Fold:
Amino acid sequence: MIKAEAREYVLTERKCIDFQLLSKQVIKKIVEENILWNKEKIGLYYPLKWEINLLDLLNIYPHKKFYFPAIHYKMEFKIFDSLTSFIPGPFHTMQPMTETVDINDIDLIFIPCLATSKTKQRLGYGKGYYDRALESYQGVKIGICPSVFQNLDVEMEHHDIVLDFIIKE
Ligand code: ADP
Ligand code: MG
Structure:
C-alpha cells in the first residue's frame, strides 16, 4: 500500500488499542533488556493521546540526561529540565523552552511512529519532521509503535529514516 493508505488504516485502528497497557509493557521491555545501559543522553518525546507513553523513563533513570523535540519551523532537540516548564507546541504536543543541543550529542533517540515498514523505515504523520531532523544523525534510532503496526507492506521513500531497532511490546 502507499503511505496515505497506511496512515488512514493506522489512524482508525489505533483507537482500539489500550495505550496505557502497551506503554507499561514497552517500558518493562526497555528496562529488562537494559537497552539504555551504556547510553547517557537519551532523546524522548511527549506522547500524544494515541501514542505509547515513555515518560516514566524520566523517573526510572534519574541520572541520565534527557532531550525532547521542539518545533520552531524545524524540529530541534532541547534539554529536559522539568515537564512543568513545557509549553504547547504545534500538533497538540508539549515542548521545552530550554536550549537546543547538537543532535549528534544525543546517544539514542526514541522515535514515535504511526507504523514501520518491512524496510524498518518510519511512517509518521506526513510532515517529515523526523526525517529532516535525523537526516545525518549518527546515534541509535529506536522506533516506538504498537507491534500490530510494525512491518507493514508500505512503499517508503528514500528520505524516510531507517530505524536501528523497533521495540515490540
Ligand atoms: P512522515 O515522515 O512524517 O511520514 P513524509 O516522509 O511523507 O512524512 O515526508 C513529508 C514531506 O517532507 C515530504 O514532502 C518530503 O519530501 C519532505 N521531506 C522528508 N524528508 C526530507 C528531507 N530529508 N529533505 C527534504 N524534504 C524532506
Ligand atoms: Mg517520512
Summary: The radius of gyration is 15 Å. The pocket of magnesium ion (ligand 2) is lined by residues 124, 128, 131, 160 (CB under 6 Å). DSSP finds four helices and eleven strands in the chain.
